[in-house]
Design a protein that fits this description.
The chain is globular, with a radius of gyration of 17 Å. It has 75 residues and is of the alpha+beta class. It is built from 4 helices and 3 strands. The chain has a 3-stranded antiparallel sheet.
Length: 75
């Protein structure tokens, strides 16, 4: 039995990057589509584009929420 190539072993060892769709972010933030796209447009919420699809890394959503909480606490 042959062992898998090193590249496959490396990919399995690294955690998968969780990418969210705009509707998933809408549901988590309980915001409308326009509000989420405004956050993306103003770069308050980081995203990547894959072809025509916009995806938001889960850690970017967590960072956004943490930043907003910090801003509210400082006010």
């Amino acid at each position: 039995m042959a062992s898998p190539p090193p590249a496959v072993l490396h990919m399995e060892a690294t955690p998968a990057l969780d990418l969210l769709t705009v509707p998933q972010v809408m549901a988590r933030l309980q915001l409308g589509r326009s509000a989420v796209y405004d956050l993306l447009r103003t770069r308050q919420l980081a995203s990547i584009t894959l072809g025509r699809a916009r995806r938001i890394p889960a850690h970017a959503l967590t960072d956004f929420i943490r930043t907003r909480l910090d801003q509210e606490a400082a006010a």
